[in-house]
Amino acid sequence: MLEELVDRLDLERSEVTAALHRLHDDDVIALQPGTDLIWLAHPFSALDAPFVVTSGGRTWDAICIWDAFGILAILEKDGSIVARCPDCAAGLHLEVTDGTVDPSSEMVVHFGVPAARWYEDIGHT
Are 30 and 39 within 8 A, CB to CB? Predict the structure, then answer.
């Protein structure tokens, strides 16, 4: 993806990586730790992630339920979210229609870190 950005923007690699690091430092994107490669452009993950969002025959990865809901919100689409419970590994499947989670799901979301601290370690939260 980095080389594609260099080619499309017709910039030097160093200019693109400097811009990516500025965006990372401003919490606009997250880079893969120790690299110049994009990991997250919230709510989208560039890598396989534990939450898979499906809508209209397309799929996207998200690193948390918050981002999974965010994908459907940004797209303004109905869709489904599939994941595994981080506690017991049971399969989870949610349907979202008109911006509302199917109320029969009876699931609870737990955020172990306050939202104000998510960017301290975005991979953990």
Answer: yes
Instruction: Please give the angle made by the CA atoms of 21, 23 and 24, to the nearest 5 degrees.
Output: 60
CA atoms within 13 A on the CB side of 60: 25
Report how far residue 105's alpha carbon sits from residue 79's, in angstroms, rounded to the nearest whole number.
14
Q: State how far the Cα of 67 lies from the Cα of 52, in Å rounded to an integer.
A: 10
What is the residue-level pLDDT of the chain in tens, covering all 125 positions?
Answer: 789 999 999 999 999 999 999 999 998 999 999 999 999 998 999 999 999 999 999 999 999 998 999 999 999 999 999 999 878 899 999 999 999 998 887 777 777 888 888 878 777 66
List the structure tokens of 46: 């560039």
